[in-house]
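Progress narrative, work stream C.
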Amino acid sequence: MFPHYARKAREILEGVSGLAGEEDFRELLCGDCPFYHHGEEENEECGSYRILKTLLMKGALDLEAILDALE
C-alpha cells in the first residue's frame, strides 16, 4: 500500500531526503495518486494535498506513525 509514500517517508526519516521544497511534498503526498504525473507542468493541488501538507508543516502528522499504520 502506498509505495511512493513509504519510500519517501523512509528517506525523510533516515535523513537521506527532506521536505525542503514543494516537489518534496508532492512526491510524498501525491506520488501514489493516479491523477499525479511527476514532472508535468500542470500540478493542480487537491484539497487532500493541502490538508495533509498543512498538517505536516504544523507537526500534526507523524511520518513514522503513518508508516507503521500502513504495514
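Work stream C, second folded protein:
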Amino acid sequence: MTIDITPDGGLIRIGSFAILWQNADLEFPGFTTFSNDHYSLEFGEIDQGNGIFITKYDTHDIDYIKPLLRL
C-alpha cells in the first residue's frame, strides 16, 4: 500500500488499484486517474486534450487511448 499526498497532487495505491491526481498549476491543467493493472480511466487534460479517456498500457507504454468524452 502506498499513500503519497502533497499540496500538488497525490497517489493512493492498494495492490494493483491506484488513484492518481495532479492539481492544476501555472504550467499544466489538473487531472485524475483511476487505474487497475493495464487499464486507466482518466479525467482531465493528460495526453489527448480535456475529457474522459480509457487508456490501456502494455509494459509501461500506452497501447491505446479511447476517448469517452471530449470537452
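Strands lie at 2-6, 9-14, 17-22, 31-36, 39-45, 50-58, 61-70. No further action is required on this item.
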